Each structure stands twice: as C-alpha cells, then as structure tokens.
Automatic annotation (TrEMBL):
Keywords, in A-Z order: ATP-binding, Cell membrane, Hydrolase, Kinase, Magnesium, Manganese, Membrane, Nucleotide-binding, Phosphoprotein, Protein phosphatase, Stress response, Transferase, Transmembrane, Transmembrane helix, Two-component regulatory system, Virulence
Membrane spanning residue stretches: 12-30, 42-61, 406-423, 429-447, 454-471, 477-493, 500-521, 541-565, 577-599, 619-644, 665-684, 696-718, 730-755, 761-780
A UniProt-annotated Pfam family: DUF4153
PROSITE patterns, per database record: HAMP, HIS_KIN
The keyword Transport is assigned to this record: no
Name under which the protein is recorded: Signal transduction histidine-protein kinase/phosphatase MprB
Domain of life of the native organism: Bacteria
Its EC number(s): 2.7.13.3
Cited InterPro entries: 2C_sensor_his_kinase (IPR050980), DUF4153 (IPR025291), HAMP_dom (IPR003660), HATPase_C_sf (IPR036890), HATPase_dom (IPR003594), His_kinase_dom (IPR005467), HisK_dim/P_dom (IPR003661), HisK_dim/P_sf (IPR036097)
Main location, first listed in the record: membrane
Amino acid sequence: MNTARPLDGITSLKVKLGLLVAVSIVVAVVVERVADAGQVPWWISVPVTVVAALAVTQWLARGMTSPLREMTSAAGRMAGGDYGQRVTASSSDEVGELARAFNAMAADLASADTQRRQLVATVSHELRTPLTAQRALLENLVDGVVTPDDRALRGALQQSERLSTLVADLLDLSRIDAGVTSLNLTQGRVADLLSDAVAEARVGARSARVRYEVAPADLTVKADRPRLAQLVANLLDNAVRHSPADGEVVVTARLVDDSTWCLDVRDEGPGIPPDRLERVFDRFGSGDDSGGGTGLGLAIARWVCDLHGGAISAIAPQPGQTGALLRAQLPVTPPTDRPTHLTQERTMSTLTPDRPTGQPGDATPPAQTTPGQVVHVPANPYAPKGPGGPGPLGNLWPERPLPPQTVPVLAAIAIGAWAALTWPERNVGLAVALTMLATGGLMWWVARFRAHPWTLLCAVVAGVLASVTLLRDAGGVIALSVFVAVIVAASGVSRARTLLAVPLSVIAWPASALRGLPLLARTISATGRASTLWPVLRTLGFSLIALALFGGLFASGDAVFGAWAQALVPDLRWDTIIARTFILALVAGVALTGTYLALNPPNIADAALPATPRARHAWEWAVPVGVVVALFAGFLIAQATAMFGGVEHLRATTGLTYAEYVHQGFGQLTVATFLTVVVVALAMRVAPLASSRDRLLLRVLLGALCLLTLAVVASALYRMSLYQEAYGYTVLRVFVDGFELWLGLVIVMLLVAGVRLRGAWVPRAVLGSAAAFVLVFVGLNPDAFVASHNIDRFEAGRELDTAYLARLSADATPVIVERLPADVASCILDSPGGYTVGGREDDDDLLAWNLGRARAADAVATLGAPTQVPDPTASWHRGELCAALLPPAAVPAG
C-alpha cells in the first residue's frame, strides 16, 4: 500500500526526531487547550490528548523505522533463498541510505544466485557432452567395435582437451570469486604472443581464417604472459565461435601512446546488439549460446585486463560494418603499486551490469521495478512479515493475517457517535449502559475465541457489571463496576489463565491503539477503494444539509414543530460541540482498541514471570518465610494484649484512646494482607519440591502464614466494626470491609492451593471472586446501607452526620425519606450536594433513566411539603431547623 511519508525529504534522522517531538508536544497542548475551553472533564480530555499526540507521531514517523522492519523480514526470507526481496527506500536520511544499500545487496545476491544456477546448468551440460562422447568411444574400444587407431585416440584426446579447457575456466572463475591472484610480470614481444595464440586458434577454428597484425612489429610490453595469452585465447575463441564457416578473424595490436597499447579482435559474425554491449563481459552476459561455450570466457578476459590495470569493451559497429569488435586497452608497463587482487566491489561488478561512476552502492533496480517499490508480494497480502511479525512485540503479539475490518470499524465509530449525541448534559443512565453493552457486544462478535467457555462467561459477567449504570446512582459504585468489567472483558478475550496474564490483558487494551494501526490502515485503504463509499458519503452529506436547512425553516415557522425539533435535536452550542467531539474520539477509540484486542489477542494466556531457579537448600526460603510468620504472630499477640488489657492498659502503653487505637494502622493491615499473597506465591515458586520433607515444610510454613493472615483479617474487621460503631458508617469503610473479606477469601484459596501444591485454578478463581464481590457490593446498595445504619445509630441515641447524608447519591434518598421526619429529610435533600439540588429528578429523560434516581424521584414525590409550624411565636421554623441540622457551609443560600 503506497502511503505518504511527510518526513521523507529530511536528510537527517536527528532532525526528524526533533521535529517529531516538537510537533507532538504542540498537538498535545492545542488539544488540551481546546478541551479546557470546552470544559471537557479530564478523564475524557487526557486520553484523547494522548491518542491525538500519538496519532500525529505515528503519521510523521511513518517510514522512519519501517525500512528496518522490512529489512529484518527480508533478511529472514533471503536466508531461506528468496532473493527477490526489496524494501521501501523513499526517505533521504540514514535509514533510507541503508535501505538503498540493502536493495543493492539484494540485487547483487539475486544476480549471483541466478548466475550460479546458470553456471551449474551450463557446466553440467558442457561436462556431459564430452564425457558422453568419451564414454561411448571407450565402450566401443572395450567391446571391440572400434579399433584403437590414431583416429579413435585423437577423438578421445579432443574430448579430454575440451574437459581440460572447461576445468581451466572453472579454476579461473574460482580465482575471480576469491578476488585474489598473483601476477608474474615479464618483458615480451606482442608478436610472439599473438603468433602462438593464432596458431592454436587456427587448429580449432575449423574453416574460419585467423590472422594478426602488430604495429610496430617489435612492440614489446610488460605483462604476465600466461594471463595475457589467456586473454587473447578467450577473445579468439569467442570470435571464432561466432564467425561463419568462411569468415575471417583479425587480431590487431597497436601502440596508442607511450604508456598504452591496444588489442582489437574483429570477426565477421552477426555482431552484438547495441543493448548488450555493456553486458557481454558479465558471466553469461552475451545472452546467446548458439556458438557453444560456457559463457565465462569474456568475463575471464575482463578479469585479466583488470589485473593488469587495463579495460576491455565492446565497440559499437560503424554504419556498414558487420561483426563484433572487442577492444582491450592495456598499459605498456603496469603500475608497480597496482594491487594483485580484486576488491570485493569489483568482483561483484562482474556479476551485474556496470553502474554509473560516482554513485557507490546505488544498485540498478530490476527492469520491472522503480526505486523505492516493494517487489515481493506474499501469497497472502495480509500475512505477517517474518516469523514474529513486525515491531518490537515479536512472538508475544504477532500480527494475524486479518483482512480489512470495515464493518467493525464503522460499528465502533457509530458507537462513538451515539455516545457523542447522548452523553453530554445527561446523567449516567440508559445511554451509557447501551454504549458499554454495544462495545462489549462488538468485542464478543469479532472475538477470536468467542466460543471458548471462559470467554463466554466473562462476556456475561462483564455485561452484568456494565448494566450497573442502570441500577445505581453512586459514582464510586459505577466506577468500580466499570473498572472490574474492563478487567473481566480483557481477560475473557485473551483467555488469561495466570496471575500475570490478567494485568497484561488489561494493559493490552490501550496498547492495541498502537498494535492495531496496520490493520486500521489496511481497512481505511480498502474502504477508500470501495465503489460505494463516496456515493454513500455524498448522499449522507446532502441529506444532512437538507435536514438542517428545511428543518430550521420549519422549526422557526411552527411552534409545535419547533418543540418537537428541540426535543429530538441535541444542543449544538460551541462548547457542547467540543465536548461531543472529545466523547466521540474517546468512546470510538475504546471500542476500536477493544475490537482489535478481541480480534488479535496477544499470546499471554499462560504468561508467567521469568523462570526462577529453585533454592538448593530448604533454609534459603524457609528462614525468610519463618520471619514473616513470626512477625504475624507477634502482631497478633500485641492485638490480643490491647484487646484484653483494657482501656487503661492501652492508654498507659500507647497514650491512645480505644477509638484512636482501632482506627490506627488499618490501611497497613490491608497492605500486609495483600503482601501475604505475594510471599506465598514467591515461596511456592522458589521452594525445592524434590523431597517429601521439603514439601511438608512448605505446607506447614505456608499454612501457618495463611492461618495467621486470616486472623489478621478477622482482627482488622473487628477493629473496623468498633470504629464504625463509634464514629458512624461511610461508603469507603463499608467498601474496605468488603475488600478485606475478599482478601480473606483469596487467602483461603491460597491455603487450599498450598495444601495441594497445585494452584493453576487460583488466578481465574480470584478474578471471578472479585467480580462476585463487586456484584454483591452493588446489590448491597452501599449508599442506602450506610444511610440506614447511621439512622439506626441516631435512633439509638448517637449523633447523626446529616452533612454526610446530604453528600450521598440518590440511592440513599428512599431510606432518608422513609426513616427520617419529613422536615429533616427535606433539609438534607435540599442542601447543596443533596439529591434535589438542581432538580435532578426532573431532568432525566428516557436516555438518562436510572433505577436509583427513579426510586429517589418517587420517594421525593411522597415527601410532600415540609411541615410548617403555624404559631409565629414558635422557637424555630424550617430555615432554623436546617441551620441546626447542617453545617453553615451546607445551608442553602437565602
């Protein structure tokens, strides 16, 4: 897929990174300022701002590192023999240069592999022909069919000479590939060299005529005579093979100047096409094997010229000329500092056509490609690149071969649009519940493992938890339910089975915003190519324009129609447009990331911490666990002393009252209980289990630790109950009671697992019990529970914290109305923060319906007008009552 890469023109990677950081910061600041101007809550604006900055970063960074990932994948495929790999090399920075060098290397390797295959095929053919003839001759000699005369032996000798020539060429080829050889430079006459070479060529030329000319006749040069003879022999062999039967081959040697001499070989054959003049000296470069030969002779001739510091070329024929002209230009005296080996670059240049000078590393691309174009296309266009997929996640989260997901993406955007239209200026209720249920339904519909029993169970539980927005008005209860619903849903689609897999699955949800970008890009590209997309968008746009134009006219022209329109059309003031845009981005993003997590969950179902070597000796782990057990035992002894020693003993020992003592350190006890879980898990991981004695010791110590922890849990619950009896109930205190009970249940699970030394079932059981705890907490209706118990204390003669009751949600309103006198209830509910402030019971429409607020509205309706004392001389009236019941800050103004 061709995509724009906005930073490709910048030639420095450092400048790109600096620009990337600067632009992302500017985008984040602008988005945050817009959110602040629209009074968007932080829990909406912060995620949208982060995503916007990441999106701009991803867009700008496109192409910066993708060539590196492509090179990693291509290198793996090339290791398997696929040399057709190319990477995108459109950027101008260091990564782009590396990509172009990689493409050049891939082109050289592809050419070398092709020529290797050609060499094997050619050599096999060339060896088979003389061997077959020689074998047939020898068989005839053995069988007596042919007499061993001079003619038969001469034929066998010719075949052996042909084999020797081929082997010599292969040896020269090995020297070329090795890039190292030696030169033995001696002074000699060119005429003598050509005379010998022409004489040998005439013997094998059959009917072709061969002659030579030297000017001046006594031309003497310094060279390696065997190598120079090899050069002339190969040129003559090529010319003779391509000459007609009655043709003539002319070899001319002449002095060009004091330092250079020239060797021309001309034949009368069909000649060399102009488009092949630059390739005839490459291996198999002539492209025409009709004349026989291995296709290596001219490549060897070029190698000999390079060794002597010269050059060889094919001269284009002049008008009216026929045949081919090959010209070698050589120094009369090779330079003494000329290396006697070929560099690797020059060796490789014999494999591929010449590159223009001054452009090192710039490979000539294949004929059917253009620079920067990716040639290789996998059989499946959506297949991951490489064994572990691109990116740093590797095998932990490989990219599955998923086709474009147009329908899920459109569904996620529709969910976000629904939230943007229905959430602003409404209380949490039906609209929010439908949004979360739709998101969960979309995730389950596309889930990879949606038929798995664990995934089905988690889907049901998450749906029930998401429905709490329909039942309760308390913000803390709703937030807790949604949080646990997210954990359950993420664990369900990823099939989490271990203690580490559960948090990793939750982290994978926001991480899907980055991991799912390739699939989202493919989906957008495929959708953009769809033939019906733009007609649909045009139709929708024209419909919206017509709706706004004529709807506005009719709404302003008829009051009844205007009232209907006002009820149906959302408020589109500038600040609400900003808020709706942020909500659209947030909800659609959550739905999209959740959808990708369900489509392609990471491989974390059985994730575990790195393997830890078990202790060699029992005391290595038994001593630390024993210390923890001793500390727990000492703490419980101190608790017992405080409980049974009496108030005077406690005051004399600590200086604290009993109420202060039971309140002190409750949070520390909760943390200590949680850390016990960690200690048990680590002990089971590092303790040696080879012997029955070690197993027994592990069971005893962990069992003692779990039992002592349960005693600490019981102590904490008892202390909290005493504190609540003394100072009253709050939702947080009730929640902590429940949380401590849940931790006790977890300890019991660990105790059972420790006795059996098998705990694979514990992580899912812990998650299920957490969801059950939240559901029980929701069913308890904590606000109503706290209000009821505080009123119980009030009726028993204790003080009533009316200011706290006024801050409770609508869930507590029915209890307040039912249990307290009408005047007191009216004062509490009409206070700032109370349920009826702002008329919340009158603002809820169908989309904001909530059971807690509906019951509160019914309760307030039965309250009626507050009792008024008719006697003007009475000592109090309603305002004085409210002032007496509530702190001054809680009394309504006026």
